[in-house]
Amino acid sequence: MIKPLQILNQNINNQVLVELRGGRGYRGILDGYDPHMNLVLRNAEEIMGNETKRKIDIAIVRGDNVIYISP
Q1: For 3, phi and psi rounded to 5 degrees?
Q2: Separation between Cα atoms, residue 11 and residue 69, nearest integer Å
């Protein structure tokens, strides 16, 4: 059985899509994470709805705001 943190570990240095509460999201390269699902994304794009709002070099996403992470 694969655990969620194992899937995150397999996707280090790969692009992921992170959906957050409030209709916001980020797409970027997963640079790191911790057991609380706090994420570090590099070369990220902030997404609201279906529209890219801005590009961010480094984004730190607090785990309790995450709805899902898609590799």
Answers
A1: -95, 155
A2: 11
| Tens-digit pLDDT profile for residues 10-23 | 999 999 999 999 88
Q: Max Cα separation, the chain?
A: 37
Delimit the domains of the chain by residue range: 4-70
DSSP assignment of 28-42? EEEEEE-TT--EEEE
pTM of the complete model: 0.89
Burial of 30 (0-12, 13-18, 19+ CB in 10 A): buried
Alpha-carbon distance of 69 to 51, in angstroms, equals 18
Q: What is the CATH number assigned to the segment(s) 4-70?
A: 2.30.30.100
